[in-house]
Amino acid sequence: MLKKPLVVAFATALTSAITVAEASEFEVTVTNLTSGIHFTPLIVSAHTPDAAMFNTSSQASPQLQAIAEGGDVSAMAALLESIGASVATGDGLVAPGASATFTVNSSSTNSVLSLTGMLLPTNDGFVGLNSVTLPTSMGTTKTYTARGYDAGT
Q1: CA-CA-CA-CA torsion for 66, 69, 72, 76, nearest 10 degrees?
Q2: What's the CA dihedral at 29, 30, 33, 39 to 10 degrees?
Q3: What is the DSSP letter of 78?
Q4: d(CA 76, CA 78)
């Protein structure tokens, strides 16, 4: 299988590399570039462009609130899976300098990528990348910057 990397970075704090193993399979590696912030287990999803894990101009959904306040990705995973999204979740903390790798599948409809996880130690902070377009050709590498947000809850 050929692999195609796509990289996601958390503005001064997180890097994620995404590799396409097949035309529609993406390997996403998230690297925490912070010097003192941990990420709770992350959730990564390939989904339709009309879906979003969060919207900066709206109040946090109950699913995002569960992530931002307690690091619980289960409600967001269930919601995304219910709309046909490809979802992968982490199983532990991602410490500064550490990485976590996920695999998600795109399709003609699931053509964008999002990820999120709680920032520790915060009471409602989260790292997020929202609805970036996935590469469509083999051999393409992408780098993105994810940001830290306050859920406002």
Answers
A1: 30
A2: -150
A3: H
A4: 5
Q: Residue 65 half-sphere exposure, CB side, CA atoms within 13 Å?
A: 7
pTM score > 0.90 for this model? no
Query: Cis ω on the peptide bond leading into residue 62 (within 30° of 0)?
Result: no
pLDDT digits (tens, 9 = 90+) for 130-153: 999 888 777 777 878 788 999 988
- The Cα-based distances of 95 to 6, 36, 92, 110 in angstroms read 21, 8, 9, 29
Cα distance between residue 139 and residue 57, in whole Å: 35
Question: What is the C-alpha to C-alpha distance for residues 61 and 58, in angstroms, rounded to an integer?
Answer: 8
